[in-house]
Amino acid sequence: MTVIAASRIFDGQRFLTGHAVVIEGDRIAAILPEGGAGPVTRLDGTLAPAFLDLQVNGGGGLMVGGDTDLAALRHICATHQALGCAGVLPTLITDTPQATAAVIAAGIEAARAQVPGFLGLHLEGPHLDPLRHGAHDPALIRPMTPEDLARLCDAARALPVLMVTLAPESATPDQIATLSCAGAIVSLGHTDCDYDTARAAFAAGARCVTHLFNAMSQMGHRTPGLVGAVLSGDTPAGLIADAVHVHPAAMRAALAARPQGIFLVTDCMAFAGTGLSQMDLQGRRILRREGRLTLADGTLAGADLRMDRAIRVLVDQVGIAPERALAMASSEPARVAGLSDEYGALRAGRRADLVLLNDDWALQSAWIAGQPVTRG
């Protein structure tokens, strides 16, 4: 048994002081007043649920791509556990059908092997709108075919979690409905769709939106677009809170409009957990400069972001309460992924996945399944 106390504990909903987390094996046994918990390891800082990241394109020097295998997924997941993530969705951006099939096969193998930190897969594309391609190769973007749909439905049934980012311009409502019924989390993204088309896609079964504000139709007072559909509705949406992809004022407005349902993603690349300054993506050079990842022409290409820094941006620059910022990195993504029974809160019976953050919200330590991991 391990008993850990900290200056304060965020249990997923509120802060507690004078308490300790009791860990037995890989589970939380209890949260008790510190005096009644037995011998205690006392730490300075905030103890909180470990993070969940539903959009990681890579880490530890590796990108998710057509050559990704079980070992690569294991390495990427371990990299993010060292960065405080209890689990991640390794994410394949727009690629060939062969690459998609290979990553799905590797993901199924990872699920069977119970790779620590592997929650499932996120397939971001290729069924997007070329007008909103961002850093995705427009030559590889294409409408969804019956063969694509069958492959994705089979993957959704075989993987613990499958998120698919698509544009309504490249998939019909019937395809969205079929994919959703197979168990996939259909997320709208990289789309220029109007408000009514977005609402129709939600009605068909889409139940998430990928990186709010980025690569999507913006909100105008006569043309609300996908941003307006999110801010006026209840569909969950990911947010890249690096103050580069989205201005703090825009984040503040979005979070005021949506008291719940917005969750943090890093959209990180192979740079995560490394000191790399550049890398190649599908034959194009990505540069890492002053907290930005860009193609040579300046197009943003993923984010140079960790979850602890995203929390700090929300608290210090956006002005969000720390409780909400921490929930956006843990309980909110757990809810979206259907994993709330295991992740996102410090409660008796839940997995013992914890992070210790200092007063500046920087990661100090992490425990995954009750075991300490090397700090990233």
UniProtKB/TrEMBL annotation:
Pfam families: Amidohydro_1 (PF01979), NagA_N (PF22643). Residues 47-360 form the Amidohydrolase-related domain. Its EC number is 3.5.1.25. The keyword Hydrolase applies. GO terms for molecular function: N-acetylglucosamine-6-phosphate deacetylase activity. Keywords: Carbohydrate metabolism, Hydrolase, Metal-binding. The keyword Methyltransferase does not apply. It comes from the Bacteria. It is an enzyme of class 3 (hydrolase). Belongs to the metallo-dependent hydrolases superfamily. NagA family. This is N-acetylglucosamine-6-phosphate deacetylase. It comes from Paracoccus benzoatiresistens. The gene is nagA.
